[in-house]
Amino acid sequence: DAEMAISDTRQRAEPIDGESDSFRFTVAASDFDVAKSSRLPIEDEKLKSCLEPTPYLDSDVSAVREQAREIVGDETDAYRACAKIRKWIHANMHTRADIGITRSASDVLKSREGVCRDYGILFAALARSVGIPSRIATGLIYTDGAFYYHVWTECYVGEWVPFDATLPTDFVDATHIKLAE
What we know:
Elements: E1 11-15, E2 23-27, H1 62-72, H2 78-92, E3 94-95, H3 105-111, E4 113-114, H4 116-129, E5 134-143, E6 146-156, E7 160-163, E8 176-180
Parallel strand pairs: 3-4
Antiparallel strand pairs: 1-2, 5-6, 5-8, 6-7
Helix pairs in contact: 1-4, 2-4, 3-4
């Protein structure tokens, strides 16, 4: 469905000539210029929905808020705060591939284990609780010679920037193809 093919600042989805249901994705990953980062909290009315708690992104639960404040500390730079959250999740979560249900961030925080979806949910909730607009991105990742379904987080830090807490680095390369947000 052409209406669902996402094109944004990182990727372009173009229909393949003569094929009504096929698209070519071009993904261009680049480092974010930290000098352009917003200050916390980010209070843009257009981003309000990306700051509000939801049943799964329960950023208003005290355990989530307290953990986020502990991770971020007195950091007021939105990008650097996200980098701290990614680093903490990567260091403190453990992969457990047999969790098939979607769980809330507070549940993930308690267990500290899960799949990429759990990493993304926890990241988004922690970010929202300290005033960073965030959303879940789902799509494909190319790794080990094949494509796999994957979830990561995008945070608004002056522009939308992807963060993947399953990775040991803040940079999300062009192997991430977003299909939904």
